[in-house]
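Appendix B. Chain record.
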Amino acid sequence: MFLIKEMPHQERPRERLMEFGKEALSNHELIAIILRTGTKECSAIELARNVYYKYQGLKALNQTTVKELTQLRGIGEAKAIQLLAALELGKRLSEEAFPKHVSFHNPQTVFNFMKHDLEMLNQEMFYALYLNAKGHLIKKQLLFVGSLSSAIVHPREVFKHAVTVSASSLIIVHNHPSGDPEPSRNDEQITTLMVNNGKLMDIEVIDHIIIGKGSYYSFKENAKF
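Structure tokens predicted for this chain:
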């Protein structure tokens, strides 16, 4: 086992990034730069490789927690926080890079925008996307976390934000941790509840989209409105 300082200069991740650019580095090399140091038993590169392959990729790693990461040998609280902060910045960069004036009336567009937040989660999360008159996004708002039902998802919370940002319409989005986006009876009840409240407030609920693993279900596309 080589410490990074004992590796040939051209194989060290920081030096490789400086010479060849960030694109030339593997995922575990980039993680090693974030972690900065290894342990007495393994280098930062070996530790990064262990973390990366433990979670089998960045998507699953991004959904873990500080507590879970610190269960791994060599990962303390500081390293776990640094790694999750870097992953969150990457996710936010992806959102900022999303076209600003694209219309969210297309369910595929909504899926592409929200999948990084939702498709790998182990618990349900319920978002609302608030749109202007042209269908452009004004605000994305996380509203509820946990097992969802029409008794838990309160219209007042959904439409309170719509009024605050002067939204003309909205789309509700949540995930199925099972990976199967087919709607449940609860999902249908929530959709009906939101659509009816939207009519009363003159704020159209355009769609309810359920995100699974690599796929989605749109109530609009399936003519459920």
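Further analysis of this model is presented in Appendix C.
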